Amino acid sequence: MNIQNREIERRFLVNEMPANVVSTLEIQQTYLDCTLSVWTNRVDETPQLTLKNISDECKSLIMSIEISDRRIFKSLSSLLKQSVALTIRVRIIDSKAVLTIKGPAKKGQIGKPEIEFAIDSEIGEDLITKFHTGEVVRKTRHIIPYDFDPALKWEVDVFHDNNDGLVTVEIEIPTEDFNVSIPTWVGKEITHDYRYANSNLAQHPFNTWE
Fold first, then answer.
1. How much is the pTM?
2. N-term to C-term CA, the chain
3. SS3 content of the chain, % helix, strand, coil (to 5)
């Protein structure tokens, strides 16, 4: 489980694959075409996160997920009140499922409000089947140590399928003005280039770009 106020990360292309990989993950993720609501009737009742499909073909499709941790319920309720422009992602990492809800960054900033928590893998697969929009993005993630702070790490993503040939790296940082030391294997910064956002790669894969 990860409940946080903001995710602040910088993203880059990769000049060459670094040698000091410490771990590797297989990831598939997709983005959901749905609206969200959270509710509970009583103090002692388990809160529910409800997802409703908003596509023309299946407006009646509804799915609910129990939220056993009330911290998640409170954070979701707050985020839903703040923004309607949410990005909803399901990610499967080595057979474990994670649901992420992100809000938009404020003008001139890169940090985004984010709530992320584990869900049952079968629920994750069901969400992908029923609510996904665009393609499923598949990638292999390589974890690289950040030399100047053991709390930070580089995450190199090697994309597959219709995004084959694209290799990016990102680093999550504690503050907007954190000074990142860039190694030689890291290339052009793409933090503000929406084409490289995973949500865009699901709709407009890398190999379809002109």
1. 0.86
2. 39
3. 20, 45, 40
Length of the chain in residues, anyone?
210
The answer to whether the beta carbons of residues 196 and 168 sit under 8 Å apart is yes
Classified as helix, coil or strand, 52 is: strand
CB-based contacts of 110, cutoff 8 Å, min separation 6: 8, 9, 10, 176, 191, 192
pLDDT tens-digit readout, 174-208: 999 999 999 999 999 999 999 999 999 999 999 99
How far from 210 is each of 168, 182, 204, CA to CA, in Å?
A: 19, 29, 11
Catalogue all structural domains in the chain, each as residue range(s) with its CATH number: 2-208 (2.40.320.10)
The span from the CA of 158 to the CA of 176, in Å, is 26
Q: How far, in Å, CA of 111 to CA of 172, rounded?
A: 10
Q: How far apart are CA 121 and CA 125, in angstroms?
A: 6
Burial of 181 (0-12, 13-18, 19+ CB in 10 A): exposed
d(CA 110, CA 181): 18
